[in-house]
Amino acid sequence: MRGGLILIALLLTPLAVRAAECLAPPAEMRRVHMDLLAHDRSAAAREGIRRPGHGLDDCITCHVVRDAGGAAVDAANPRYFCTSCHVKVAVSVDCFSCHRATPVEAAR
Amino acid sequence: MSPGPTRRGLLAAAIAVAPGLFLVAEAAPRAPGTPASARTRWGLLIDVTRCDAGCTACVDACRQEQGWGGAASDVPWIRKIEATERQTNRSVSLPVMCQHCAEPPCVEVCPTGASLRRADGIVLVDRHRCIGCRYCVMACPFDARFFVDAEVHDQRPYTPRGKGTAEGCTLCVHRLDTGRLPACVEACGGAGGAMLFGDLLDPASEISQALRARASTALRAELGLASAIRYQGL
């Protein structure tokens, strides 16, 4: 019983941390992330409205997936945060044909 | 007097480059979440008499800042050219980049609205809407709009670039929006100081005062595009 609770707490911790830092809880983000991205991208690119924490590079920095060697995996990798779902639902992600897919320090 | 900012800009940095000539960073950081304002128009005055033919500091700084170059495709957002007067053989060296026209032909010909002029006068490509038709590349009288024909990797996080889209000088919007000078202007200040950057709509700005006091011209002035980039000593 006690072990089970600790296990659940351990499993929930990364989710809780992520939800606290993300723009919305994961369940909501799964539904609305594309709207947030589409809205903010036009505001930023066309009007210069830059909202700290709302940039795609902020998403990328937080949701980085690292391989065994600690290097950030690229968008083509099935373990990449966006790719892991988008491959399953067969929705291609065009973002990374222009946007950098990994945090800068990982590329050095 | 209160110790607060006395006027917009607060002259974040002033680097003396010659008696009477100052490079002034007047790009006050905009509050996060606010749009670029039409009360500002960013511009640049380039004194070609101070631009050394052998110096490529602005080009090198731009390449480093924006991450272009190195690939097979040639997309020089800024380049140095030699201009020679035929009758006199007087030769000058000057940098050419997007002239950030008030009436930009690239915006006029763009079929999707990807080419745009921001409220503060900066001409940009919204790559989300760019279909890679190259109309803007052909329309630009300054050869300052380019087409990316190869895949790009390891882009700068603040400057997305990708195959199949058009691009050009952004006047370093990512720096301006956080109160920093364009990379070329900053580099030029450390290498001779031929560039004066500022707000063309602020009559008190260094650049407005300089433009009132000295003769300058736009490239291809006969086209009447009202460039934000002005040249002195051509």
Beta-strand portion of chain B reads: 15-25%
| Helical percentage of chain B | 10-25%
Low-confidence stretches of chain B: 1-25
Number of helices of chain B: 6
Calculate the terminal CA-CA distance of chain A, rounded to whole Å.
Answer: 46 Å
Given the helix and strand composition of chain B, which structural class is it?
alpha+beta
Total strands of chain A = 0
Low-confidence stretches of chain A: 5-19
Give an overview of the whole structure.
- The complex is a heterodimer of chains A (about 110) and B (about 230).
- The longest helix of chain A has 22 residues, at about 25-45.
- Chain A has helices spanning about 1-20, 25-45, 55-60, 80-90, 105.
- By secondary structure, chain A is mainly alpha-helical.
- Chain A has a domain at about 55-110.
- Chain A is globular, with a radius of gyration of 16 Å.
- Chain B has about 230 residues and is α+β, with helices and mostly antiparallel strands.
- Chain B has a single domain, classed as Alpha-Beta Plaits (2-Layer Sandwich).
- Chain B has helices at about 55-65, 105-110, 135-140, 175, 185-190, 205-215, and strands at about 15-20, 20-25, 40-45, 80-85, 90-95, 115, 125, 145, 165-170, 195-200, 230.
- Chain B has a 3-stranded mixed sheet. In chain B, strands 1-2 form a two-stranded antiparallel sheet.
- In chain B, a hairpin with a 6-residue loop joins strand 4 (about 80-85) and strand 5 (about 90-95).
- In chain B, helix 1 runs antiparallel to helix 5 (about 185-190).
- The interface of A and B includes residues 46, 47, 50, 60 and 97 of A.
